[in-house]
Specification:
It is built from four helices and five strands, in the order E-E-E-H-H-H-H-E-E. It is α+β, with helices and mostly antiparallel strands. The chain folds into two domains: 41 residues, no CATH class; 113 residues, no CATH class. The longest helix has 18 residues. The two termini are 27 Å apart.
Length: 179
């Protein structure tokens, strides 16, 4: 049985300034405190790289969950041990590597909605790395590839695969894209 705890996260942007965000996340019953303090340093450049990638890869996609999945796909490549991603250690590496994310362009605008999604996913990623369960990941870690048709993005484990992600993880976002 899981209960919800409010996690107060202070984000220290490497460019200066801080922002505090509250998340309600599931915890196990054994947890003594219902309030947890966590602090993460999230580089504004990482948020910008993801937001600019979203602009190029998903700006025509209506689903916030699918936009977040693009960010998770980038982060999955950063975390991957696959040979295809051996030189990718950072978000910048992932989005700027040749033949990786064709939608990334340094001149893409920073759109508020996409910046918010990128920041949200980065917080969840850091929480997951700290061992928090059920952070709201919308794409399993083994999904490192996708293609889009302008309306939807289709995620897969291998670039040649015809098996796509079925959106069976609960989403922290408002919509249910499976109907």
């Amino acid at each position: 049985m899981n209960n919800l705890a409010t996690v107060l996260i202070t984000i220290t942007l490497l460019t200066g300034g801080t922002e505090t965000v509250n998340f309600d996340v599931p915890i196990h019953e054994q947890a003594v405190s219902s309030e947890v303090q966590a602090q993460y340093e999230i580089a504004q450049s990482d948020i910008n790289y993801l937001a600019k990638t979203l602009y190029g890869e998903a700006r025509g996609v209506e689903s916030k969950m699918e936009k977040a999945a693009v960010c998770w796909c980038v982060l999955n490549r950063v975390d991957s041990d696959e040979y295809d991603f051996k030189g990718i250690k950072t978000i910048e590496d992932a989005v700027t590597a040749p033949n990786q994310f064709m939608g990334y362009d340094k001149d893409n605008p920073l759109v508020d909605e996409l910046v918010d999604i990128a920041g949200d996913v980065l917080i969840r990623w850091h929480m997951e790395k700290d061992g928090v369960m059920d952070v709201g990941r919308v794409l399993p870690i083994e999904y490192t590839h996708f293609y889009g048709d302008g309306d939807r993005n289709w995620f897969r484990k291998d670039w040649r695969s015809k098996d796509f992600w079925d959106w069976s993880i609960s989403s922290p976002y408002e919509e249910d894209i499976n109907g």
